[in-house]
């Protein structure tokens, strides 16, 4: 088996690092799960073994996120991107109006997709300042008869995060939590629907989790393709068709791992410490700067620049040689981005800061 020593610190925004313990367990169980003589990949999704995997994944997720009883948890496919379509298809149920807050590239894509299905209003946007902050919105800013309001809680590319949950009154709030789910405590009851692609903080790509309040299920038009109707998945406990079995197994092991490590409160504490250390160093450094408004900085995706594109490129390539991989910013904005999801240990952040200091000394302007 691959040893710990040759693994690198992987700062990729997603797919990203997973807990080593979980991957070693999966490796041990890969060809023979719990003495049943076959891999999870090979077993029927209707088998007792897999049913147990699915049920325990759901119940552990419910426990760590404290998901209220009146919410369904669905394990689907198609990534967060398919939710950009499924949300409007299912939730534009009365006025066919929805409000979107555009705080980054994913939020913008979500809004653009929704336009195909209804009357979409962008009620606030930070695009004019290159998405470096989160706009403040009040209850009065929303369309009174909107069917829902959509936000992207953590903006993976720009490194921002809502410091508050918008108060939408009676209008259901929909949240894309792809890059912050399980990283800090979130009050699920403030949302009508939460979705998150797995590959940032949950497990391998191929699973998307939808947490939906029951009263929002069952409004998709007759013409909705069957896979795109939440009602079908809710009625069949995510087993209408073959679910992404191995991905669900991995996600379930990550949930157990979080539970064992002290739950989301413990994750949040460590994540706050990691991010604080890194931002403090960036803020005091004379080479690096973070363009994001202090109050809106992400705990998961730390964006920084040297102000010199050539130097930024040199940074990411030398960092890689030092065992610190995938520190380049998103292809649309450049610079650097350190994604420090739950699985990134404090040592990874310490190694990064040590490298940044060394690079700063060597490249002082
Ligand atoms: C990565 C990401 C997406 C896109 O996820 P896919 O699973 O690739 O569709 C959407 N929203 C946010 C916030 C993301 O970080």
Question: How do the helices and strands line up, and which of them pair or pack?
Answer:
Layout: E1 9-10, H1 20-29, H2 48-65, E2 71-76, H3 79-91, E3 97-102, H4 105-114, E4 119-125, E5 148-152, E6 154-155, E7 160-161, E8 173-176, E9 193-197, E10 208-213, H5 230-235, H6 245-260, H7 263-284, E11 301-304, H8 309-321, E12 324-325, E13 336-339, H9 346-362
Parallel strand pairs: 1-12, 3-4, 3-5, 5-8, 8-9
Antiparallel strand pairs: 2-10, 6-7, 9-10, 11-13
Helix pairs in contact: 1-6, 2-6, 3-4, 7-9
Bound molecules: pyridoxal-5'-phosphate.
Q: Shape from CA axes?
A: globular
Helicity, as a percent range? 25-40%
Radius of gyration, in Å, reads 21 Å
Q: Structural class from helices and strands?
A: alpha/beta
Number of domains: 2
Q: How many E-type strands?
A: 13
Reading the helices and strands in chain order gives: EHHEHEHEEEEEEEHHHEHEEH
CATH architecture of the largest domain: 3-Layer(aba) Sandwich
What do we call the CATH homologous superfamily of the largest domain?
A: Type I PLP-dependent aspartate aminotransferase-like (Major domain)
Oligomer: single chain
Strand order of the largest sheet: 2-10-9-8-5-3-4
| CATH topology grouping of the largest domain | Aspartate Aminotransferase, domain 2
The biggest sheet amounts to: 7 strands, mixed
Sequence stretches where pLDDT stays below 50 over 5 or more residues: none
**CATH class of the largest domain, please?**
Alpha Beta
Number of helices: 9
Distance between the termini: 45 Å
């Amino acid at each position: 088996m691959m040893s710990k020593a040759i693994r690198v610190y992987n700062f990729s925004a997603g797919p990203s690092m997973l807990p080593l313990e979980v991957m070693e367990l999966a490796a041990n169980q890969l060809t023979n799960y719990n003495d049943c003589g076959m891999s999870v990949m090979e077993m029927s999704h209707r088998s007792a073994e897999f049913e147990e995997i699915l049920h325990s994944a759901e119940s552990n997720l419910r426990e760590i996120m404290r998901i209220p009883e009146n919410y369904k948890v669905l394990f689907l496919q198609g990534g967060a991107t398919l939710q950009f379509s499924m949300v409007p298809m299912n939730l534009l149920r009365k006025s066919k109006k929805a409000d979107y807050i555009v705080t980054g590239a994913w939020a913008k894509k979500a809004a653009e997709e929704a336009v195909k299905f209804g009357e979409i209003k962008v009620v606030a946007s930070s695009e004019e300042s290159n998405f470096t902050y989160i706009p403040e919105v009040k209850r009065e800013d929303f369309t009174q008869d909107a069917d829902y309001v959509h936000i992207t809680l953590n903006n993976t590319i720009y490194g921002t995060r809502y410091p508050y949950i918008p108060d939408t009154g009676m209008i259901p709030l929909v949240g894309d939590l792809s890059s912050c789910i399980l990283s800090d405590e979130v009050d699920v009851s403030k949302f009508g629907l939460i979705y998150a692609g797995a590959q940032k903080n949950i497990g391998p790509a191929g699973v998307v989790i939808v947490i939906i309040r029951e009263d929002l299920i069952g409004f998709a038009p007759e013409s909705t393709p069957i896979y795109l109707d939440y009602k079908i998945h809710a009625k069949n406990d995510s087993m209408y068709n073959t679910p992404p079995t191995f991905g669900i197994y991995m996600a379930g092991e990550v949930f157990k791992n979080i539970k064992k490590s002290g739950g989301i409160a413990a994750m949040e504490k460590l994540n706050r410490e990691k991010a604080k250390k890194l931002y403090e160093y960036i803020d005091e450094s004379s080479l690096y700067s973070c363009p994001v408004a202090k109050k809106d900085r992400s705990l998961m995706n730390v964006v920084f620049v040297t102000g010199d594109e050539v130097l930024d490129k040199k940074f990411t390539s030398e960092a890689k040689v030092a065992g610190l991989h995938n520190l380049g910013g998103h292809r649309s904005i450049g610079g650097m981005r350190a994604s420090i999801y739950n699985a990134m240990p404090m040592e990874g952040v310490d190694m990064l800061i040590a490298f940044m200091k060394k690079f700063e000394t060597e490249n002082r302007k």
